[in-house]
């Protein structure tokens, strides 16, 4: 018989209600029912004067059970249980360890007092699921910490540590990381002796704010949230907390929570929550797959990527040897790492001693001999096959047997690179995104010979350096950049057809993309994509193809780094400004090619660019270069600024309706030609059968 998730014992006149629902004590139906029952028992039992609520395992409640969302509700609701805790005639104490998140923190806030261990964290991350705290959190938190601090916490969704929570009033006591249960029982006894009584957060006065506070706050967040609904609804809830009593505030919170729950935005974000955890679930890999420990890393190349990768490793305490045969470049690489760390110190995110400790992890060398004992070598040199192969021959000659040899190539064939070694099974692509110490995405490129052990170890390494590692197959551009080509191809064609760069970028950022394609091109460097196109032999023979980007690169307009690209930049500024010279160039090219320029509506701009992504994503799935559609979503959200609340390109296609997407792609083919728009069979078949990309099984191995 399965053990009950909620149990109760009494010690020193304190009832201890313990919840044990691995892995993260989510507040599932069984837990809620168990809590309601044990609370009644504890309240009725004369042997107890107070109640401690504590969780077993690695954490206090991590929130409502997300797997129950979208299914019929089952009583008791979390709100019912929290009302019961709040109304308890006996003093209740939440004893927190691990992370008290979402409904978990709301449960703690419904208790009369809160004690936590110093390593605990608390937060209301519901907005990251497109939701708002729906069990009284929007009403209780502002009463404890004030409206602005509560808004900041709920809208960012970021947890805070126990020390900060003690300072702002969420926690009443923080203890060293020792016996929490004993400390909570003794705390309850202390409160009883002092006659502190029941401190119901729901009964605290409404928070006060100055005139116009909410309008100003809304205006401030609008610039960042662009079309994302949950933050605005959180503001409305906190406004209700300030203007109404607790009961009415709770009603308003309930209505807005229901609206969020029913939204496609929340469906999209919940999809990503599970998609990001599913990336590591691959056919042929499980808990028992052997993994090689990575305790030391070598990085070949000290340019922007090499330095960023080195720093990403140093940030998690991994010793790094950085190698460059050019002494000047090596010194510049070291200096750029120092500079990035100095920025962290200036921002108060790092102390000077932490910075020094990190720098001590870095050794620089021009000698491959220094790589002989390293567990992992990552090559990040110039994107030319011959140079990469030379590096891999050297790595093969110097690295110990069992070392993982990785290339950070973004376009080259991993199998050809592996061929330069006598151990292709140890060679893998680890494709970081710039800036490598910041961006969370890591494409793990599986070559033909890469062993399963090396893939599993790469997934673990990704976790180790706080990245989301997605395993992809070895095709040109892998998954992310291959799709990016179709997307920018359309934005380039739109320029010739009549849309100005800033109009295209505005349409896509209004839709939710972090940046528009023209601004991205200027940031990444138009010379870089130009060189890649020059090396390709499979591009369409069409004078329009990437014409404007090509002409700009040939004119030395590389983007931000030269102060001019598709946009122009004032000295020292990164703000893209429309450039009449470029507008004239585009108009002249349109005229030369006989293209009738027209005003292109924002909807069409978005459809052209985003549907190009969907088409290429379908093709990648058909060809088996991604295991499942949700992996593609994770790549685009974490590496390319695709709006999280739209779920990634493949889920977005499902939400729009595959039949609609398919019909539109066919129209684009008829208007713009087959060389760009060929509806993939997968899209056609799923559209006809009423299937979904989210459910598409994909290939078994990428
Ligand atoms: C909410 O509370 C709404 C309320 O305001 C209102 C209600 C009326 N439910 O992340 P991990 C699973 S919204 C179900 O790999 P870690 C997860 O899928 C909720 N399952 O571990 C994974 O399963 P699997 C607000 C959950 O140590 C396994 O647990 N709360 C939940 O890296 C391990 O997870 C949040 O948004 C859940 N709530 O990180 C917190 N949480 O092994 C969400 C996790 O099959 N959770 N799972 O892949 C987290 O942020 C992290 O899981 C946590 C642990 C930090 C707790």
CATH class of the largest domain: Mainly Alpha
Question: How many helical elements?
Answer: 28
Structural class estimated from helices and strands: alpha/beta
Poorly predicted spans: none
Let me know the largest β-sheet.
Answer: 8 strands, mixed
CATH topology of the largest domain: N-(1-d-carboxylethyl)-l-norvaline Dehydrogenase, domain 2
Bound molecules: (S)-3-Hydroxyhexanoyl-CoA
- Percent in helix: 40-55%
Q: Mean pLDDT across all residues, rounded?
A: 95
Distance between the termini: 41 Å
Backbone shape: globular
Integer count of domains: 3
Count of β-strands: 17
Instruction: Identify the CATH architecture of the largest domain.
Output: Orthogonal Bundle
Rg, alpha carbons:
28 Å
The order of strands across the largest sheet is 12-11-10-13-14-15-16-17
Strand content: 5-15%
Notes on the protein architecture:
It is built from 28 helices and 17 strands. Strand 3, helix 2 and strand 4 form a beta-alpha-beta unit. The strands form three sheets. The chain has an eight-stranded mixed beta sheet, sandwiched between helices. Strands 1-2-3-4-6-9 form a six-stranded mixed beta sheet, sandwiched between helices. It has a three-stranded mixed beta sheet with strand order 5-7-8. The model has no long low-confidence stretch (mean pLDDT 95). By secondary structure, it is α/β, with parallel strands linked by helices. The chain folds into three domains: 194 residues, 2-enoyl-CoA Hydratase, Chain A, domain 1 (Alpha-Beta Complex), CATH 3.90.226.10; 178 residues, Rossmann fold; 209 residues, N-(1-d-carboxylethyl)-l-norvaline Dehydrogenase, domain 2. Helix 2 runs parallel beside helix 3, helix 9 runs antiparallel to helix 10 and helix 19 packs across helix 24. The two termini are 41 Å apart. It is 48% helix and 11% strand. Bound molecules: (S)-3-Hydroxyhexanoyl-CoA.
